[in-house]
Write a structure and sequence with these properties.
5 helices, globular, alpha/beta, 4-stranded mixed β-sheet, two-stranded antiparallel ribbon
């Protein structure tokens, strides 16, 4: 077999690969083991920018369900009603899972009412415009502005805008803490 054939077969396998299985709330391993696997994976697996994500949030149980309830509510506001059935099916299937892992990179600012779906990567120093939808598997490069539904990169960020992003997290952090004090998650 020649190198060209092997390469072509590899590319075909990658292109045609699909993971088809029903998502279930059952887990063959403990929640503690899940957390350990995630911590070790993040610690030893650099991103495309050769740096580890600094924040990973593991949501299990009621917190996991609440995330997908919130995501569904947000999407209802932006997806036309006559097209929402398939979105509802997808959200229901995600909610049926055992948990959700959210990855965040340093210094990204996520605008209010934005939805970042599982598997999306937001690069350091980037800004996601308010109300945007970042689809699963999408990567927003470091230092860019992305917005829209679905989000697309609009421009590179520099100068005063870069300074603002580097410092604005403090305001968002304090506002999120105030908000979380008013929300009851059972």
């Amino acid at each position: 077999m020649t190198t060209m054939t092997v390469t072509k077969d590899l590319f075909a396998a990658l292109r045609d690969r699909r993971s088809i299985y029903g998502i279930s709330a059952e887990s063959p391993i403990s929640d503690e083991e899940i957390q350990n696997i995630i911590e070790e994976t993040v610690k030893h697996t650099p991103s495309a920018f050769n740096s580890q994500s600094t924040r990973v949030v593991l949501l299990l149980g009621k917190q996991h369900e609440r995330l997908w309830d919130i995501t569904t509510d947000v999407l209802k506001a932006v997806v036309p009603a006559d097209q929402f059935a398939s979105t509802q099916q997808k959200m229901d299937s995600f909610r049926q899972g055992h948990g959700t892992v959210l990855f965040f990179e340093d210094l990204a600012v996520i605008g209010m009412n934005s939805t970042i779906l599982a598997g999306a990567r937001i690069g350091s120093g980037s800004l996601i415009g308010a109300g945007s939808l970042v689809k699963g598997g999408m990567t927003i490069p470091a230092g860019t502005l992305a917005a829209g539904n679905p989000a697309t990169v609009k421009k590179a960020i520099s100068g005063d805008s870069a300074w603002w992003i580097e410092n604005a997290w403090k305001d968002y952090y304090h506002l999120s803490r105030q908000y979380l004090q008013t929300v009851i998650i059972e």
